[in-house]
Design a protein that fits this description.
With 340 residues, this protein is α/β, with parallel strands linked by helices. It contains ten helices and 14 strands. The longest helix is centred in the middle third of the chain and has 19 residues.
């Protein structure tokens, strides 16, 4: 049994070929897609966050709206770039969205990916401290957030407050008591996966990873997951962690599927550089007739290691087609692999 969710990057473009031609289109369709995903039996509705781009950015209004329109499906992010975040304000937003949803928020966060602009976090008012780079700043923001999620008071109350205060130091409100167990770290390296395990975060591993061994993507990712789980065990945490991987998977069941994704039937891993010195391996897409797709996916070691699979969806093709994409996986692929 695996949890299966969708992951939308929330692309929009004013093109006649796109079903999401404006930010309003993609926001409203994201809500509709989550509602439909819940109806057909998907386990999660996840959204990617990018700044300075025609994609989803500030996630909490969307997450709250999805939480209000659904009842059971997990709602989440994969991932929020912590270089841009004020951990205190983020805690209030995340707690509010979680309470609206009935504690269904799965909050994926990370140091962030290459940006649309140069040092975009500076425009949000953030600067690395002396001796810090932007990645370390993102991890510092994360550690502050995790501390706030403990729920302990830290602020001295005003002796003449406008409203009565409870006794002692004050914490931020609203506060979700269990959200701290539903924080995920998006790790691109083995080292950051181990760091996340030590801090008690769940693990998200996407369709790219720093190329640390030269092995195929799914093998490197599986080793990352095993290293994470070993670090979790050594840290002595009492709960069982969760691990997700993201994949582009399309069951070719009709002519439209073949027109859109048939060219990916022979997809292979790709190598690229995130900057001048960072070599990354990008995982292949899967697109095939259902029976062949099942056999291909059986060989993916990282999917086998994970408990949660996030299907990246082509959101610009509209809600109806994306429901078909997800339903095809649930109907033709998941049962044969023991995921359902």
């Amino acid at each position: 049994m695996k949890k299966i969710g969708f992951l939308s990057f929330g692309h929009w473009t004013p093109s006649p070929q796109s079903q999401t031609r404006s930010a309003a289109d993609v926001l409203l369709q994201s809500i509709d897609l989550a509602v439909e995903a819940e109806r057909i039996g998907m386990d999660g509705a996840y959204f990617r966050v990018h700044h300075f781009a025609r994609q989803l950015s500030s996630p909490f209004p969307l997450l709250a709206a999805v939480g209000a329109r659904t009842r059971n499906i997990e709602i989440g992010t994969a991932v929020i770039d912590m270089r841009y975040e004020n951990p205190h304000y983020m805690l209030e937003d995340a707690s509010a969205a979680d309470l609206i949803s009935g504690s269904r928020l799965q909050l994926g966060i990370s140091r962030g990916s290459p940006e649309q602009v140069i040092d975009g976090w500076r425009h949000f008012g953030y600067q690395p401290k002396e001796g810090e780079d932007d990645a370390a700043m993102g991890r510092r923001h994360t550690e502050v957030l995790l501390e706030l999620l403990r729920g302990e008071g830290f602020a001295q109350p005003n002796p003449r407050p406008m409203f009565p205060n409870p006794p002692g130091l004050l914490r931020l409100e609203p506060f979700s008591e269990t959200l701290g167990e539903r924080i995920w770290w998006g790790a691109a390296t083995n080292a950051t996966a181990i760091w996340a395990a030590k801090l008690g975060m769940n693990l998200q591993s996407s369709t790219l990873k720093f190329d640390e061994t030269g092995e195929p993507f799914h093998i490197q990712q599986a080793k990352q997951i095993r290293a994470y789980r070993e670090a979790w065990k050594q840290a002595g945490h009492t709960r069982t962690p969760r691990v997700s991987v993201s994949r582009s998977i399309f069951a070719l069941t009709n002519d439209l599927d073949r027109a859109y994704f048939g060219h990916d039937s022979n997809s292979q891993d790709k190598i690229g550089f995130l900057d001048a010195s960072t070599r990354a391996v990008f995982g292949r897409s899967y697109a095939a007739e259902p029976q062949k797709l099942v056999e291909q996916l059986r060989q993916d070691e990282a999917i086998a290691e994970a408990d949660t699979l996030l299907l990246t969806v082509p959101n610009q093709l509209g809600v109806e087609y994306n429901v078909h994409v997800m339903e095809s996986i649930l109907t033709h692929v998941a049962p044969a692999l023991g995921w359902r």
